[in-house]
Design goal:
The protein is mainly alpha-helical and 239 residues long. The protein has two domains: 69 residues, Winged helix-like DNA-binding domain superfamily/Winged helix DNA-binding domain (Arc Repressor Mutant, subunit A); 138 residues, GntR ligand-binding domain-like (Four Helix Bundle (Hemerythrin (Met), subunit A), Up-down Bundle). The chain has a two-stranded antiparallel sheet with strand order 1-2. The radius of gyration is 21 Å and the shape is elongated.
Length: 239
């Protein structure tokens, strides 16, 4: 088996086990089945299994205890901003688990993004500010759910990218994931109001950090009632 095939099978094994963990099929505190059982179940070699578990360990999902086995970690050890974990959480979330997941995402975005907007208003270069303004115009004239999602995600991402603080970069994938969930599973597009987005652009263009902070907070607060009154197409078709 060549190196590409080994890596691919390792990634698939890590994804399969990771999804079982975030779905709760392998609950917190549980010891994983022994190597032989897992290899037979997944159809992989022990080498691939051990590498997959190493990957999951680096993400905080599992821990190896000598002579006891490999255990599923408490959720407070999970690397929640890891792109794979975010993907697995959203891919495996059932309708009943989507709302609390989105609420948690909005909570952390409220804690982080208003501050990022304030920093961008203070620090962004002229070309950065112009780009943010251009992205707002794209959002303003977007006329489909897909184009609106892409435009709003790009608008917020540009604000996060131009606050000149590298620690905000790890948050950007969460913001994009949250946008996708909002447009896919709520009526965000139908109720999208752009007055706060416009106020944020104005504050950033005019170097007004506190107004930028307030405007970004208002953008995020728009989503809270939409989440709680969401209409999931899957729910409607099931009914």
């Amino acid at each position: 088996m060549d190196k590409v095939s080994v890596k691919r099978r390792t990634d698939i094994a890590a994804e399969t086990i990771g999804k079982q963990i975030v779905r709760g099929k392998l609950p917190v505190g549980q010891v994983l089945p022994n190597d032989q059982v897992m290899c037979e179940t997944l159809g992989i070699s022990r080498t691939i299994l051990r590498e997959a578990l190493r990957i999951l360990g680096a993400k905080g999902l599992v821990r190896a205890v000598p002579k006891a086995g490999t255990f599923v970690n408490d959720t407070d050890r999970w690397a929640m901003l890891d792109k794979d974990i975010l993907s697995w959480l959203t891919d495996t979330a059932t309708s009943g688990r989507l709302e609390p997941l989105m609420v948690e995402m909005i909570d952390i975005r409220l804690a982080i993004e208003p501050g990022a907007a304030a920093l961008t208003a203070s620090r962004a270069q002229a070309t950065d500010r112009q780009r943010i303004s251009e992205l707002f115009q794209t959002l303003k004239y977007a006329n489909t759910p897909t184009s609106s999602y892409e435009a709003e995600a790009a608008f917020v991402d540009c604000i996060l990218a131009n606050c000149y603080n590298r620690f905000f970069n790890s948050h950007r994938i969460l913001a994009k994931t949250c946008h996708k969930l909002l447009f896919d599973h709520t009526e965000r597009y139908k109720y999208l109001s752009l007055s706060s987005h416009e106020a944020a652009v104005r504050a950033i263009m005019n170097h007004e950090p506190q107004n930028a902070r307030r405007s970004m907070q208002a953008i995020l607060l728009q989503a809270s009632p939409i989440i709680r009154n969401k209409k999931n197409p899957a729910d409607e078709s099931a009914g």
